[in-house]
Amino acid sequence: MTNDELYVSVDVETSGPIPGEYSLLSIGACLVAQPATSIYLELQPDSPKHDPEALAVSGLTLEKLEREGLAPREAMHKFDQWLKSSCTTGQKVVFVGLNAPFDWSFVNFYFHKYLETNPFGFTAIDMKAYFMGAYGCTWKETKSSQMTVTLKPRSAPSHNALDDARFQAELFALMLAERGKR
């Protein structure tokens, strides 16, 4: 890890498989180096379309989020402000995710739709790809359960976006520490 990069573990829960048609329901993010420095946001759905299985996994309901969630623009503004307050001058925020293509696609879409810019830019670190390269394994061996066997984190995923972001942060920190030993 270099001082000019700030690794941010991000996890999301959604109402379905693709942004634009389905809603971003919650965002959890934390600093990889300091997982206690975190943010958790629940958003009002911006589409009624949903996959019942996606909602069952997260335990979130569209009705509750409609009443209690933040408007998407407000949520993305809070996320942007948290990122800015977490960075020192000149640092580049780097999105880190377990299956980053999925999570990043929703975060990128929402940042552009509601704030017209994405503070992460157009890239992300996918932990599955990183693990595959670092450990010389096959793609099917990049499941979080396999990473857990190899890296032995203390935490576990729960399908709460913040809990999962912290779990991912721990896994990525362990990968970085292992890289330093090689």
TrEMBL record:
Keywords: Exonuclease, Hydrolase, Nuclease. InterPro entries: Ribonucl_H (IPR013520), RNaseH-like_sf (IPR012337), RNaseH_sf (IPR036397). Residues 6-181 form the Exonuclease domain. Pfam families: RNase_T. One of its GO terms (molecular function) is exonuclease activity. This is 3'-5' exonuclease.
